[in-house]
Amino acid sequence: MFLASKWQTCRQTSRRAYSQAIAGFSALGKSMLWLGSAQFSGRLVRVVSSILLARIFTPEIFGQVAIIVTSFELICTLTRRITSVTLIRMNDEDFAKHLSSANWVNIIVCVFALLLMVIVGFGLVYYYQMPSLLWPMIVMSASFLLLPLGMNYATLNLRNNNMRIVGRANLWQTISDGVLTALLAIAGMGIWAVIIPKVLVIFVWIAVHRYQNPLPSHGNAKRKFQTGYSAAKFNTAKSQCTMLLRTGVPVVLSDVVIALRQHIDYLLIGYFLGLEALGVYFFVYNISLGISLGLVNSFGTAFYSYICSHSKSKLQALKPENTQDCQRRKFINSSFAIMAVTSVIIISQTALAPWYVPFIYGDKWLATDALSLFTFLCLSGLTRPLAEAASQLLLANNLGKLNLKINLFLTATLAAAIIVGAQISTLAVAQAVMLCCLTLMPAVFYFSYNKVFRTNAHLSIGESL
């Protein structure tokens, strides 16, 4: 009787734990559904746009677009999570208290990003001896002045796991960008067909995030207009801004390093092989990894909010080891799920590449190494979700400095491999990228898992599945 009772208790506990895991994973699944479908739909629009651009633009123009967009993406990384990574983890009261300070931090960082973009523009003009690069860089930098209008609202949606709205904002932004780019390219606007839409679509992103999404107000907000801003209030705001920067800067630096790792091949190919070779590589990179990387980025956005949700839920009442075990199950199940999805896409793309690359994009790209580049870059995407999952896990457990060190190592190793490959050809660069991704990223995944869950080392990965 005792053994039967004990067995029944174990079965009930297992079922309850399994039900909690399934319920939690279904929440991430819904988030991924909205973000992933938005990314997939947006990528289809970009594919149509890229088909048109491939038949209008030369590789040299693609090279100019690549260096401008890459510079913007790297600098924009400074602004994306400077405050949101801290606000998402706060309780409701602290979140409302820090919104005003977060807005000021966003404005300051965005102005800094604008100035940095202009300085980089002058540097690129000097290096490539192409004055035509300057004004597109300046116009792109204007986007940073618009971002603070929607950053707190986007953070609120992420914090509340409103991934349907986040996905909708990304989708309509991407659709607007693709349609405007195609129309302006047909109108003969040249490189401006890419630059102008990327500024205008920021208004779409802002509008979607702000629509029927009021920010919570702090209880003392009404008294600000009556009492003015005393020294105490100024000191409070200053301490809040300092706290947001102190916790946000390590995360932003990690994000910058990750972005640099994702774009380091563009920068080094442009430096060693010139803008025409960069144009071919940039074109192939986007058509080969566009869809899978879009899903990986969506996974990272949803996964951070999902894995942080245990700190704001009923799981706070559980023992620390049970909370960690729940997080471990989330991590393993989610990582393998995104790997399964992206692997199917990547393998299908690689198998069909010899048929659809020349058919859709034109025979002129076959005169280059586009088809071989496509294959190697596609295969490099197989393990990229593992690095993304590991990074978000470390950030969710306040291991931002370790995450920064790991990504510095990955970026340095990848840069060294690309520099060696660039001495040979763009094809050698793609092979170097593939080898680094397939070997280093699973190792980072395994290391991060052991670092966070080493107290539960007796539980194997197989037990969580």
Structure description:
It is found in: Cell membrane. With 465 residues, this protein is mainly alpha-helical. The protein has one domain (25-213, 232-464). The chain has 18 helices and no strands. Helix 12 (275-308) packs antiparallel against helix 13 (320-361). It is globular, with a radius of gyration of 23 Å.
Topology:
Elements: H1 2-56, H2 59-80, H3 84-87, H4 92-128, H5 134-141, H6 143-146, H7 148-159, H8 163-186, H9 192-210, H10 224-227, H11 231-273, H12 275-308, H13 320-361, H14 370-380, H15 384-396, H16 400-422, H17 426-453, H18 461-464
Helix pairs in contact: 1-8, 1-12, 1-13, 2-4, 2-11, 2-12, 4-5, 4-11, 5-9, 7-9, 8-9, 11-12, 11-16, 12-13, 12-14, 12-15, 13-14, 13-15, 14-17, 15-16, 15-17, 16-17
Transmembrane segments: 21-41, 61-83, 104-128, 134-158, 179-208, 331-353, 404-422, 428-449
Membrane topology: Multi-pass membrane protein
Subcellular location: Cell membrane
Quick structural overview:
This protein is mainly alpha-helical and 465 residues long. The chain has one domain (25-213, 232-464). It is built from 18 helices and no strands.
